[in-house]
Design brief:
The protein has 482 residues and is of the alpha/beta class. Helix content is 54%, strand content 7%. The structure holds 6-phosphogluconic acid (6PG). 6-phosphogluconic acid binds next to helix 8 and helix 11.
Length: 482
């Protein structure tokens, strides 16, 4: 009997996905560039299963049922292109290549188009959930050649995570690089969620002077509220974890954050599309700032930074902090969905936002109860332009407003950096302000560069120039917006 699917790449994610597929009754052919890895896998975790090995790409191709489905679980970038180049001459028209790595979506756009000309279908799929997710149910976000989806769907939906109603956290996202785009936004939101949690931790630790056991209890309690999520859950575990000397391990970890690029891509795309994705972008910059460790150490001394004590009833502050975190999280997701909406319009992807929320409901790093509410919001209005306008989320934003402002103001007063929570509030203040000071900005642009402006008392699209000083000419520069 031939194999149902081939997987190339036996690193952690590849191995666990294969074992997961095997558990669901699929016959998987496993290949890795180095043959020893294949042997190690077959004699190790894959022993006693239906998984078979292939020591060359030709052997892999020969062992697969038509149309062949070959999933690449290799490092994003050139390695993917190199495998595609080697595979294509061995494949038949109608065969399917799937890239399950964290690929930048323009690469997927390019590969879908290039392979289409050769009659090969290509799927670029986000896979989230780390090692545990890959093994027992990841969130899977596939996009690319729609013709390929019916062949891949049963396998992907079988191995994916399931919601509490047993719905698979995997569905077709859209054409071209839509799947990798949605995975990129998922990761951007992951950056935002993580940053928000760390801001709450710093407020509790430095501002309220709480112990790690106290903070752990707070996160355990928060996990029983609307904040219920994987990231809040692991944070409580981390805060309770003691090193061999009995001290909290987290305080022994160097405070410089790493990043592999997906958060940065999300910010870059937001800038390119003109979407005010402030919270995620602040979270990327917060990681950049953290990496300037030596400079920060020097600057703390140079400026004689004082301790940041927050006075008042601790329990009241903790509840205010919870509300500020929840409200900020709503803004982060609202901005993320704004970005996906713009990308969907620009690329003709026709994204289904409720389905995206469903795919993120289980299995992935940002999985949370909250995503069910997002799905409900898009069920009510599939074209909702701002998540915060949905009645459920609007209610939370309104109820949290005063606590959120108190926390933001206090953090500024005592000097605890909370870039994501404060930028979320600033965004909402801007978004809910009918008249912003951009009129003055337009006047400045027109003053120094004759860039023209529109008037509130004239139809939009009519542009005016004023000779502000009486010295310049009346000639205006061309009006265009990038
Ligand atoms: C996931 C994660 C996964 C990975 C990130 C980490 O969805 O399973 O997002 O993709 O953990 O790449 O990203 P950074 O190294 O940039 O934090």
């Amino acid at each position: 009997m031939k194999g149902d699917i081939g997987v190339i790449g036996l690193a952690v994610m590849g191995q666990n996905l294969i074992l997961n597929m095997n558990d669901h009754g699929y016959k998987v052919v496993a290949h890795n560039r180095t043959a020893e890895k294949v042997d190690e896998f077959l004699q190790g975790p894959a022993k006693g299963t239906n998984i078979v090995g292939a020591y060359s790409l030709q052997e892999l191709v020969d062992k697969l049922e038509s149309p062949r489905k070959i999933m690449l679980m290799v490092r994003a970038g050139d390695v993917v292109d190199s495998f595609i180049d080697k595979l294509v001459p061995l494949l038949d028209k109608g065969d399917i290549i799937i890239d399950g790595g964290n690929t930048n979506f323009p690469d997927t756009n390019r590969r879908v188009a290039a392979l289409k000309e050769k009659g090969i279908h290509f799927i670029g799929s986000g896979v989230s959930g780390g090692e545990e997710g890959a093994r027992f149910g990841p969130s899977i976000m596939p996009g690319g050649s729609p013709e390929a989806w019916p062949f891949v769907k049963p396998i992907f939906q079988a191995i994916s995570a399931k919601t509490e109603n047993n719905e698979p956290c995997c569905d077709w996202v859209g054409n071209d690089g839509a799947g990798h785009f949605v995975k990129m936004v998922h990761n951007g939101i992951e950056y935002g969620d993580m940053q928000l949690i760390t801001e709450a931790y710093q407020f509790m630790k430095d501002g309220l002077g709480m112990t790690h056991d106290e903070m752990q209890s707070v996160f355990i309690e928060w996990n029983k509220t609307e904040l219920n999520s994987y990231l809040v859950e692991i944070t409580s575990d981390i805060l309770g974890y003691k090193d061999t000397d009995g001290e909290p391990l987290v305080e022994k970890i160097l405070d410089t954050a790493g990043q592999k690029g997906t958060g940065k891509w999300t910010g870059i795309n937001a800038l390119d599309m003109g979407i005010p994705l402030t919270l995620i972008t602040e979270s990327v910059f917060a990681r950049c700032l953290s990496s300037l460790k030596d400079q920060r150490v020097e600057a703390e001394e140079l400026f004689g930074k004082k301790e940041s004590i927050v006075e008042g009833d601790k329990q009241v502050w903790i509840e205010a902090l919870r509300q500020a975190l929840l409200a900020s999280k709503i803004i982060s997701y609202a901005q993320g969905f704004m970005l996906m909406r713009e990308a969907s319009n620009e690329n003709g992807w026709d994204l289904n936002y409720g389905n995206v929320a469903l795919m993120w409901r289980g299995g992935c790093i940002i999985r949370s109860a909250f995503l069910s509410n997002i799905r409900d919001a898009y069920d009510i209005d599939s074209e909702l332009s701002f998540l915060g306008s949905d009645s459920y989320f609007k209610g939370i934003l309104e109820n949290s407003m005063s606590a959120w402002r108190k926390v933001a103001a206090k953090s500024m007063e005592v000097g605890i950096p909370m870039p994501s929570m404060t930028s979320a509030l600033t965004f909402l203040d801007g978004y809910t302000t009918a008249r912003l000071p951009a009129n003055l900005l337009q006047a400045q642009r027109d003053y120094f560069g004759a860039h023209t402006y529109e008037r509130v008392d004239k139809p939009k699209g009519e542009f005016f120039h004023t000779n502000w000083t009486g010295k310049g000419g009346d000639v205006s520069s061309t009006t265009y917006n990038s």
